[in-house]
Amino acid sequence: MKKNNLLIVVSGPAGSGKGTVLKELLAMSDDFAISVSATTRQPRPGEVDGVNYFYITREEFEENIKNDTLIEYTQYCGNYYGTINSKVSEMLESKNVILEIEVEGAMNVKRKFPDALLILLLPPDYKTLESRLRGRGTETDEVIKARLEQSKNELACFEEYDYVVINENEGARDAALDILNITKSEIKRTSRRLEVKEKFYE
Ligand code: 5GP
Fold it and tell me: How much is the pLDDT for 140?
C-alpha cells in the first residue's frame, strides 16, 4: 500500500445509504476513488457495467478466484462479489481508495491489510433500515427479507470497525462529511507518518 493514501472499507447494511453517501463524498473531495467490484448479480435498472460493478458470470468469477486476481470475495444472498486487486493497487497510487463491501469481505481486508481504515455506515435504527429498503422498490420481497436478515451479520462485527457513521434521513451530506473528517484525521495518525519523525534524525 502506498504511504499516506488510505485503503478505506465502508460497510453497511442494504438501505444504509452507502451509494448516496459515497457520491456526496466524491463531490466534496478529489482525494477519493471507489473500487468497482465484480459481481454475478444481475444489474438493477439504471446500473451500468464497469461503473457500478463489472457484471460477470459465475464461471468467469470462479476463474478469477482460481487465478488469485481478487483481494477478497464473498457470496452474499446467492451471488458472488469480489474486489479486483490490480485496479485497487493502481488507484492507491494517487487516491484514497474506498471498498464498499459487506462485513465478511471487510474482515478479510482487515486481516490482509491491518492498516486499512474500516468504517461502518448505519441508518439511525432498524425501522428506518426496513422502510428504506422497501421504499427502494428494486427488490422482491424475498430478497428484501434476506437483506434484512443479513443486516444482523453486519452488526455482529460492530466492534471490529474503527468508526461508525450514522446516516440520518436526509443526512447523506453530513455522513459524507464525517467520513471526510475521519479520513483527514487518520492520515495524520503517528503510525502512518513515521517519515516525519525520520526527518529529524537525518
Ligand atoms: P448490492 O447487491 O446491494 O450492490 O451489494 C450487496 C452487498 O455486497 C453490499 O453490502 C455491498 O457492499 C457488498 N459488496 C459489493 N461489492 C463487494 C465486494 O467486492 N466484496 C464484498 N465482500 N462485498 C461486496
Answer: 87
Low-confidence ranges of the chain (pLDDT < 70): 1-3
Atom of ligand 1 nearest to the CA of 70: 19
Q: Which atom of ligand 1 is nearest to the CA of 77?
A: 6
Q: Which helix (H) or strand (E) holds 122?
A: strand 117-122
Instruction: In whole angstroms, give the CA distance from residue 107 to residue 161.
Output: 9
Instruction: Locate the ligand 1 atom nearest the alpha carbon of residue 83 and give its number.
Output: 19
Q: What is the pLDDT of residues 57-81, one digit of tens each?
A: 999 999 999 999 999 999 998 999 9
| Helices and strands in the chain, H and E counts | 8, 9
pLDDT value of residue 125: 92
Cβ–ligand 1 distance for 154 under 6 Å, the answer no
Q: Which amino acid is at 98?
A: I
Walk me through the domains of the chain, giving residue ranges and CATH numbers: 7-35+95-201 (3.40.50.300)
Q: Is the CB of 72 under 6 A from ligand 1?
A: yes
